[in-house]
Amino acid sequence: MKYVLKIVVSLTILCLMILKPSNPVVFKLTNVHCGSYNKTWIRINQCRLKAINRHRTVFNFNATFLYPTKSITVHYQTFKRENGYRPWLVNTQIDGCRFLRKPYDALGILLFNIYRNFTNINHTCPLQGDMIVRNMYLTTDVMRLPLPTGDYLLAIDWIFYGKPQFATNVSFQFVEDIL
Ligand SMILES: *[C@@H]1O[C@H](CO)[C@@H](O)[C@H](O)[C@H]1NC(C)=O
Ligand SMILES: *[C@@H]1O[C@H](CO)[C@@H](O)[C@H](O)[C@H]1NC(C)=O
Ligand SMILES: *[C@@H]1O[C@H](CO)[C@@H](O)[C@H](O)[C@H]1NC(C)=O
Ligand SMILES: *[C@@H]1O[C@H](CO)[C@@H](O)[C@H](O)[C@H]1NC(C)=O
Ligand SMILES: *[C@@H]1O[C@H](CO)[C@@H](O)[C@H](O)[C@H]1NC(C)=O
């Protein structure tokens, strides 16, 4: 009897392992919030999430840089939600124009890899005109993320010539595969 039980348990575990979906985590955008600090320079035409299904939301962003810029500082910060968003792990600045010439910051590269197929921001400075992100979604295909389960916020301030011009805040949910 004990032996049979052992086999049943083993078979069940084996079945679970086989049936385990290839992309078992929840990794999806939950909210976006953008704002221009200087509407004579940056017009935000669109900053919106759209639900495609239970597992996927897509991000659409469209902003017009009314004048060219050759100086972009990207200040990004990550937050994790625990009774409101608390600063978590990263609070750093990178030189956006240098990055577009030659990507150099490890986390910046990871973030850019998530966006690159969905954006027209794929050339060097100066940047001017419509900056587009179209139907962007999160997927674990791109990378393995060693993130604990939780709700996160990536807040980015875009600074031109030393002055903040606009912000893009994107929240997402990550649920670890617990099988
Ligand atoms: C983005 O998030 C930061 C940090 O929580 C906050 O200070 C800022 O006001 C937010 N900006 C927008 C446009 O939501
Ligand atoms: C706002 O944008 C205008 C137009 O480009 C620029 O001349 C001005 O310096 C900017 N103001 C700030 C505070 O960045
Ligand atoms: C972005 O917004 C501008 C201004 O509303 C519009 O003219 C342009 O067609 C939009 N671009 C895309 C790709 O949606
Ligand atoms: C971007 O597109 C290329 C070519 O279609 C593909 O190989 C790559 O996996 C895509 N990257 C992302 C982040 O979707
Ligand atoms: C940049 O993005 C545009 C619009 O998505 C695309 O047509 C173009 O081929 C891309 N250029 C490079 C160098 O990837």
Automatic annotation (TrEMBL):
Residues in the signal sequence: 1-24
InterPro entries in the record: DUF1091
Keywords: Signal
Cross-referenced Pfam families: DUF1091
Top-level taxon of origin: Eukaryota
Keyword Iron-sulfur: no
Protein name: MD-2-related lipid-recognition domain-containing protein
